[in-house]
Amino acid sequence: KFFYSDLSSGGSTDEDEATTFGYAFDIGILKKNLLIDKLNLALVLANIGPSVYYVDKTIEDPIPLTWRLGLAYELLSLADYRWTIAADYNRETIYDDDKGNPEPFYIACWKSIVDPEKKDTKGLETAKNSLMQGVFNVGTEFIYSNTIALRLGYLYDRTGQRHEVDFGFGFMLSDMLQFDFATIKDVGDNDGVRDGQMRFGMLFKF
Q1: Per-residue model confidence as pLDDT tens digits over 103-141
Q2: What is the distance between the alpha carbons of residues 106 and 49, in angstroms, rounded to a whole number?
Q3: CA distances from 165 to 2, 168, 169, 171, 202 (A)
Q4: Is 138 left (phi over 0), alpha (psi -120 to 50) or beta?
Q5: 94/79 Cα distance (integer angstroms)
Q6: What is the number of other CB atoms lying within 10 angstroms of the CB of residue 65?
Q7: What is the pLDDT of residues 39-48, one digit of tens each?
């Protein structure tokens, strides 16, 4: 992955230019037919890469190193119909040392989980707090004749105070080209930052 970020667009020309460029990669494993047929399990460590800085080289910002654990089960698989249900858990694992500098990924990926409060504490309460710092997702997809896909999902994020329902559909124009649309509706007590957002996507397979 390569990315470019510009935080100074539209600002005064007298200000320092707050831009950065970086890279990252993912690594993961997929186990198909786990215990039963058509039940798949995946584990991914995403966004492995160096920290970046915008203006001051001494102030580094870590990119969002994230563990992702997912399960998917195909409930229905016929010639014209496919119905899949999936769930995943995403846990960001950024961790700073005693001086406030981000730890490298091979330390942050486990230390942020086992010691999220930086108190060297153990027990069920610490494990629960660490678990609830992640984001939970569940969703389902129904595909008709390998042409139209209907999607429905739910997101729960206690830390970010997000409760969202997602609706979407997709059109497979050919074996190579696919268009997708989704919209987000916040169903929590707070005004969600993504409420009403629409997402458009195009997938090209080769």
Answers
A1: 888 999 998 998 887 666 667 888 888 899 999 999 999
A2: 11
A3: 30, 10, 14, 21, 22
A4: beta
A5: 45
A6: 23
A7: 999 999 999 9
Alpha carbon distance, N-terminus to C-terminus of the chain: 18
**H or E stretch at 171:** strand 162-172
Main-chain phi, psi angles of 114, to 5 degrees: -80, -25
- How confident is the model over 80-103, as pLDDT tens digits? 999 999 999 999 998 888 877 888
Confidence (pTM): 0.82
Specify the long-range contacts of residues 84-89, CB closer than 8 Å, at least 24 apart.
Answer: 84/140, 84/141, 85/138, 85/139, 85/140, 86/138, 86/139, 86/140, 86/141, 87/136, 87/137, 87/138, 87/139, 88/137, 89/134, 89/135, 89/136, 89/137
* 187 token code pair: 């169903």
Return the structure tokens found at 128: 């629960």
Q: Which residue has the tokens 């970046």?
A: 52
